[in-house]
Amino acid sequence: MPGIRSEDPDHLRSVQYADSRNLAARMALHDRFSVNQQPLRQWLFDRLPAEPADARVLEVGCGPGTLWVDNAGRIPPGWRLHLTDLSAGMVDEARIALGRIGVSAEMSVADVRGLPFPDASFDLVLAHGMLYHVPDRPRAIAELRRVLAPGGQLHAWTVGRDHLRELDELARRLAPGLDTAATSAHRFGLENGAEQLAAGFEHVRREDYPDGLWVTEAQPVAAYLASWGHVEPEVLARVRDELAGTIHREGGFRVTKSSGVFICW
């Protein structure tokens, strides 16, 4: 049962993140069933520095541009955005999404291990939910440091080892072989990310996002698991049946969440 090859750039570019469908299945689970009333993308935006008013902002691994779509009315008018992703499909989706809401941004396909920008090009760099996919993180972190101007900040969101623990347990039992949240955290997570980032940044501060899931429908969990790799239909049926029974007995299925952002300068 092959799953996502989380540190294989060709697989990420052409299969897992060729477009936003797999990511959307995972985001939908959080958007529908998170218990924190402040959505993660708003919480992340709250932590961005307000100055300078004309900041040059780079997001690597931008996906379909959801951070900016969800905070469109809050983007300072003087900010100059440049969004990049390893996947051309994601960049195309981000361009369309931001165009629909009238947000201006430059966009390009780029690998974080070799960013096509001069030194000190940006005042703020965002690397949310993507460093655990990079096979050479020291090189990537050095690149993020290189393109950051003096006095600038890097913000890097990631997950902890307990993130979606109950779903990982479900996957190990019913759909072994899927590479899900736990494996991402072991590569670059809350528990080990600060040490990795300290190789490039003098100051690294961690802020945790408090949240959990209270899931009241089984199908979105099956869709979440299927988004990580091929899962046989009969396995998904077992997932739905088991969760439906739990939800019927207990009113819902509780899932642990553990995530946060590293702010570096």
Q: Could you give the order of the helices and strands? A: HHHEHEHEEHEHHHEEHHEE
Looking at the structure, the CATH topology is: Rossmann fold
Please give the alpha-carbon distance between the first and last residues: 42 Å
Q: How many structural domains in the coordinates?
A: 1
Count every beta strand, where a strand is a DSSP E run of 2 or more residues. Answer: 9
CATH homologous superfamily label: Vaccinia Virus protein VP39
Can you summarize the main beta sheet?
Answer: 7 strands, mixed
List keywords for this structure.
single chain; alpha/beta; Rossmann fold; 7-stranded mixed beta sheet; two-stranded antiparallel ribbon; 9 strands
Describe this structure in words.
- With 265 residues, this protein is α/β, with parallel strands linked by helices.
- The chain has a single domain, classed as Rossmann fold (3-Layer(aba) Sandwich), CATH 3.40.50.150.
- It is 40% helix and 20% strand.
- It contains eleven helices and nine strands.
- The protein has a seven-stranded mixed sheet, sandwiched between helices.
- Helix 4 links the parallel strand 1 and strand 2.
- The radius of gyration is 18 Å and the shape is globular.
Summarize this entry quickly.
This protein has 265 residues and is of the alpha/beta class. The protein has 11 helices and 9 strands.
Topology diagram in text:
Layout: H1 9-16, H2 21-33, H3 40-46, E1 56-60, H4 66-70, E2 80-85, H5 88-100, E3 105-109, E4 122-126, H6 137-147, E5 148-159, H7 165-174, H8 181-187, H9 193-197, E6 204-209, E7 212-215, H10 219-226, H11 233-250, E8 253-256, E9 259-264
Parallel strand pairs: 1-2, 1-4, 2-3, 4-5
Antiparallel strand pairs: 5-9, 6-9, 7-8
Helix pairs in contact: 2-10, 10-11
